Amino acid sequence: MGDWIGLAIFVFVILGALVGLSYLGKTRKPLTADEYEQRVAEAKGTTRAAAMASIGGLEKFINPGAAKAVEVQKDLAAGRYDDQEKEGEGDEPGVKKRVGPTDEGGGDA
With a threshold of 0.85, does the pTM exceed it? Predict the structure, then answer.
């Protein structure tokens, strides 16, 4: 009985492959000029993005210092490196906050 099940699976796989190949062998209907232009426009952005991603990855591999510089530039643009905030501890740049004991009357310990 197991031989028949194996043979049935084998025949099913072969028939599926033949049906798939016949589907791939069909000729497509011709595209109109508008459909062609639309497909080219859609693919252009995807192809450009894939090419730029691969070039960026290659650049990181060849020159890791440049990759670090790009990350720092992104951090600068996001405002993570602000020289004015290093001067004081307050929320506003340039205003220094005095740290010391409070006059609340309780122990600070």
Answer: no
